Amino acid sequence: MMTKPSLFAFLFPLLSRTLSLALPADPIQLTSPNGQLVFTFSILTSGVPVYQVRYQNKQMIQYSRLGLRQLADTMKTPDATAGYQLVRVDTQIHNTTWKPVWGERKYINDHYNGLLLSLQKAQLRVQIEVRSYNEGVAFRYVVLPSASSKTSTFQGEETQFNVPEETLAFWTPDAQANYDQRPVENWAEAAELPLTLRLSTGAWLSIAVAEQTNAPGCVLKLPPKISW
């Protein structure tokens, strides 16, 4: 079955600032197989899901919010990501090998530690599937059918990437345009993905999307303000 491409894009906020948050005592952590990458998940007292990523004990992504904006939410909704409850946590260790049809290597190792976070907000049931590889961290939302409906409609994502201050981005508004190195501030337009960033520590970070099916394109924008 073929579908028409959507004419809009999900906007992921990109931040560069330090935040002070009220976190529960026991956040959930997921490490990569080699122990170098650590993904930490928690839910604020307001019910906002947040995460952070550290590499070799250095902050790559500071605490940033997760969540989806439902159709019932408006742009004036005080906090579309508040009110979530964590109802279940499942873990996984995955280590297999697969053979590509064509490529530089005959076999590819698919090795990661996994985390499945089951959240609920009123009738909305969402799972956040997280995978921590030695090479990076991946996560995605899985929306489950509710008791009253098998479909859900969303305006967009509220996913944020809060990078450390003094981070530089290789920004471009279009994949075919020139790339410009600039601070994570005062962008007139959203940035095309993937976006590569250089942290003040000398580390490099790349934000990308993958495995999209019947989904709109995604770009990164700078929000005018942030409150928790």
| Strand runs, count | 18
> Which geometry do the CA atoms define?
globular
Helix content: under 10%
Task: Describe the sheet with the most strands.
Answer: 4 strands, mixed
In percent terms, what proportion of residues is strand? Answer: over 45%
CATH topological fold name of the domain at 11-166: Beta-galactosidase, Chain A, domain 5
CATH classification, class level of the domain at 11-166: Mainly Beta
Poorly predicted runs are: 1-11
Rg calc = 18 Å
Succession of helices and strands: EEEEEEEEEEEEEEEEEE
Strand order of the largest sheet: 12-1-18-15
Secondary structural class? mainly beta
Number of helices: 0
CATH architecture of the domain at 11-166: Distorted Sandwich
* First-to-last CA distance: 42 Å
Mean pLDDT: 83
What attributes does this structure have?
mainly beta, disordered N terminus, 49% strand, four-stranded mixed beta sheet, single chain, four-stranded antiparallel beta sheet, 228 residues, globular, Beta-galactosidase, Chain A, domain 5
